[in-house]
Amino acid sequence: xxxxxxxxxGLAAVAATAGAVWAAEQAAVRRSRRQTDPxxxxxxxxxxxDRHTFPSHDGGVIHAISRGDGPxxxxxxxxxxxxxxxxxxxxxxxxxxxxxxAFDHRGHGDSVAGDSGHAVENLxxxxxxxxxxxxxxxxxxxxxxMGGVAVQAFVTTFPEIAAERVAGIVLLSTLARTPLAxxxxxxxxVAAISDRSPDVAGLLQRRDxxxxxxRIGFGDAALPSHIELTREMILECPPDTRQExxxxxxxxxxxxxxxxxxxxxxxxxxxxxxxxxxxxxxRINRAIPGSVLEIVPGGGHMLMFERTELVDDLITSFxxxxxxRGAAVDV
Length: 331
Description:
alpha/beta
């Protein structure tokens, strides 16, 4: 029995569409990879002087690395990433005279989630663990994406400790509120669907498709090696962490609490950030009294790679303004 003519036409249309999508994917990857890439042969292993492990408040382990001497800067990475996010800053910031500390969030990199799993409150606790375990004072906390949520959660959950140990915070490509905030029932439905959804690792493992998926995190300036590094970090993240850490951010709403923040705050956002749009940086800027917003034209979500010199300059100049450089006053 012959298939109806319209069925054959439909199948041909689907095949043609799939072929066009595949061809567009290949062309996009070729265009991107043709760029001159000074980091093409780089291994992207962060430099450090010391490696640290600390017990978390709920039985997990927090892994950190540190390098250099001077006033401390603490780097907090985004969801599904690791300390490799800060490979550039672990060179540049110590060279500028800062003790630079980067840590893996629970379940990421070499850190282990504790008994209470993933939650925004736990992000705050883990920042506290790093500060207290290393006895850091006059620190500048730099948080990217989920790491920025961790910094916001810390300063709002533990304001007394922040006042004692933190000179200022830098919120890089992050947000304080997610779209499901205030819609608990919908958030539960979305979480249930997420639990039953296949992991993205299979798609990311496809070299070209995974490359294009990771490219979403970048704006106008993206080197192929940085896109590949991002893909690698996501694939290195355990599947349960990829799912549970992202789900913990559903329903996030720190906006009202940010009104009580008193530590100096610098916010950095890119105009081409498709993951935490510039509108979110502006929302944080309105919420935190006296905060300063720096807008990066054409910048995407991964600004520490895309605009390394600019981001480093903003961080170091901010740190020098807010940190008490250890000068003693004779009495």
